[in-house]
Structures are given as structure tokens and as C-alpha cells.
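Fold this sequence, please.
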Amino acid sequence: MENMGKQILITGAGRGKTMLASLLASHYASKGIPYQVADVGSKKEVEKLKPLEEGFQIVVSNFPVLDS
């Protein structure tokens, strides 16, 4: 499978992040693709997440988690 172990970060202030994560999770579930959704508050929490061997990890955060 070409989509093995990908991480999708959804960040920023405002609305819509959880809805987007739900839509992505629903899509992956309908295709039988493994996924995990995590709601985090800092970059350290993202780093603590164990990557999936296959499928997608959808990470939602109100705070920027990437270095600028």
C-alpha cells in the first residue's frame, strides 16, 4: 500500500479542524484504510505519538505544531 504511515497535521485557530478530521476518518474507514485521530495541544504531544505502520494518523491542534 502506498499510503503507509502518513501523518496529516490539521492546525490553526478557528473552526473546521475537527470537521475536516471527521471527514477524512470517514473516507478512510469507507475504503478500509487504517487511521487514528489525535487531538493535541503542543509539538511535544505530536512527537509522543507512535506512528502507524500503515494508514494515516490525523493530528488536530489549535496551536501551530511545526517549527517556523
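The CA atoms of residues 4 and 10 lie 19 Å apart. The two ends are 32 Å apart (CA to CA).
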